[in-house]
Design brief:
192 residues
Length: 192
């Protein structure tokens, strides 16, 4: 009975934590925007409608998207990014977030070519990995093998992990979608 209770609590925790973290981040993001713009809007117009931050956030994203379509806008964005990358803590957060968003926004075919099993961390033990990017030509030449870049994500945060170069003949390609494999990684193996 205690084992069943423990397993049920763990299953609930696996569902609750990602939901709570997502709601927490969204709530504080909107709250921060709300606190930032509400005094200015109230001062200019004399009134303020709660939830205006959603519209403001949408317009900000739209304007940034428009800026990125023009040469001058791209230069402004590049300069802003360069200044972000000069600040140690901000650099880490910004670059990790940018890469995670790229993976989500770009087609999975462009970033992730396939789901594989790779023997890691030792022979006889397998980890789920994703083939990614192009082979590193210099590494292939030095080893004389056709090496494939494989990203092995950590659980439950698949945005971190490590890249290993594996000879193509040692990879076992799985007939599952990237989404299914991500669910397995994020759930810590609890998902089927």
């Amino acid at each position: 009975m205690l084992k069943t209770l423990r397993d049920t609590l763990l299953a609930g925790l696996v569902i609750f934590l990602p939901l709570a973290a997502s709601i927490f981040v969204l709530y504080f993001t909107f709250r921060w925007i709300e606190n930032l713009i509400s005094p200015a809007v109230h001062k200019i117009s004399g009134f303020y409608v709660p939830g205006f931050s959603l519209l403001f956030l949408f317009l900000t994203i739209l304007i940034l998207g428009l800026l990125s379509r023009f040469a001058l806008g791209r230069k402004i964005i590049e300069r802003l990014e360069k200044s972000f990358l000069k600040v140690p803590l901000l650099r880490t957060i910004y670059s990790a977030t940018k890469e995670a968003v790229k993976v989500l926004v770009e087609g999975e075919a462009e970033r992730i070519r396939g789901v594989v099993l790779v023997e890691y961390p030792r022979k006889g033990i397998y980890a789920i990995g994703f083939t990614s990017g192009k082979s590193i030509r210099v590494a292939c030449e030095k080893t004389g093998k056709n090496l494939v870049n494989v990203f092995i994500p950590t659980s439950p945060n698949p945005t971190s992990g490590l890249v290993v170069l594996v000879p193509e003949e040692e990879l076992i390609y799985l007939d599952i979608s990237v989404e299914e494999a991500m669910k397995i990684v994020i759930s810590g193996g609890f998902s089927n």
